Amino acid sequence: CCSSCSSHKERSNPSKDIEKKKDWKKKKLFIWGLGLISAVAILFEILEIFDFLPHPWLPILLFMVTFFSFGWFLFWRGVQSLFAFRFHDIRLLMSLAVGGAVYLGSWTEGALILSLYFLGEEIEDFGVQKSESALAKLVEAMPEDAEVKGIDKPVPLEEIKIGDILVIRPGTTIPLDGKVVEGSSWVDESAITGEPFPKAKEPGSLVYGGTSNQNGYLEVEVTKTSKEGTLGKIQEIVFEAAETKSPSQRTIERFAQYYTPAVVLLALGIVFLPPYLNKGSFTFWLYQGVTLLLISCPCALVLSTPLAVFAAIGFATKKGVLIKGGKYIEFLSQVKAICFDKTRTLTTGELEVTDIIELGEHSKEEILACAGGMESFSEHPLAKSVVHEAQKAKVEIHSFENFEAVPGKGVKGECLVCDQKGHRLGTLPFAAGDMSLPLEWKSKIEELAKEGKTTLVMSEGDQLKGIIALQDRIRPEAPEVMEELKRMGLQVFILSGDHPEVTERFGKKIGANQAFGGLLPQDKEEKVRTLEQRFRVAMVGDGINDAPAMKRATVAIAMGAVGSDLAIENSDIALMNENLHLVPLLYRLSKKTLRTIRINLGLAIGVKLLFLILALLGMSHIGLAILSDVGITLVVVLNSLSLLTWKG
Description:
The structure is a single chain. This protein is α+β, with helices and mostly antiparallel strands and 648 residues long. It is built from 24 helices and 22 strands. The longest helix is centred in the last third of the chain and has 35 residues. The N terminus is likely disordered.
């Protein structure tokens, strides 16, 4: 049975203890052997029922083969537990059950108990390994050494220092976080972010340890050591998550601690009390007591929660999501409201040109050509967005000279194409100077500001030429995600530091239930506190300026956390990419995981309760009991592992 079924610290998987040094081929032979013995034992059991067994010594021979092949190990461990007073050790209980079967002359059933017990061990071991397979791949992703520029032989990762230059050849794994200083290539980051498409990397681009270089040569300056790097952090968090127990798991394990001793005491009562009261023979009730010993193992119960949690964490990891513990899966399933930060969560954090308004007789193309020419000298984010829009529109950018950037106001320069050379682009007072403006132009600028747009006003000489409006780009999937969350019965709120009217318009545009603007970080925390008086709340943000609100929420989810130690640290769940669709997917995963756990528990408790009733009525059967116990364990394992291949 699983290690949780025993109170001692040793592994309680005897078959694995025997086989741990053998290769997989021998492991398969062992499993096939167990299956063959079980099949023969079942056949003998059927033949005995119909009195067709050709020789009475065949069951004895089968038991001896089973016992001396591997059953002795179970008895040896059982004897050790007896002398150590570990009376609830499942190996001691199984030894007593086998001994009882032999005492009753039920040799076939004794062999069946041994073979199916060890087969159950293998099923559990397979389930745990399979559920942790996604976590194991994280370890495999990290190479042990790397090629450092100027050093002839590979250098162990722990000896590499920040600032060293790594040589990354085509088709190799990038070992550490760093910045590209030479070369260009495509890099597959799916092991970290879950995104299926490779990303282009060139000098200045950031790369992460555990990602795969595709077809180009790169030289990378190390920015983080192996322990501090992205993959190291992910490994640490995920494996700690596997060890963190959810409330349900702790409850089941506490129950299991009392369940086994209670069933053993009940078995003793069944063996001795009815014969004492002249309600049947000792032999008959000993048989029923042995049946109870067989169902005293709480393995299916104990496995029902952690296997499902491991599988769910593994599924999430493959999608580029870090879940810091099973308890957060359980908490997320209880959430009734989700709060989103606005900037860089529901928006990309990148400005895009939304409006080009002509003032006078100048065309939009001319306004964009002049703006692109002036802003091409600047490194300001607004400037980059304007230049990008000009390039996208394929306008021929005007050439400028005598460029000057005026901090906090705008830029100015002399256009070499337009009739009047002097141009300004920036705030209204900067561009207009002493000009008197028509009321409708002022109203237009005010209207754009109310929509949450940043305006750049352009002047040529002593006339205004046009207005360029920019806005933070809404993530294209945001409205769809809002609608999906509401369909699942969740309340969706937006918490933003933007102007309340701007935030309200934004919320209506993407379909949120309510949007709150003008909030400082502490105000967001207070708003989450207020909402939590009504229901459990999840907070989705960047994990930095909304950290107080995230700490206050039942579950904190950080967006785009790859490379951000602070975002990972401040969250319970970290999305390593910026795909908003992962939020409803995670909610569905939490619900699916809790349903899986409930089904597992219902089946496990139901089967054990059935045989408990049958034993009390004197109608149980050893063969059926052990088959049912192993069978329900197999069902629990397969049901839990289905989460790994869940379609979402």
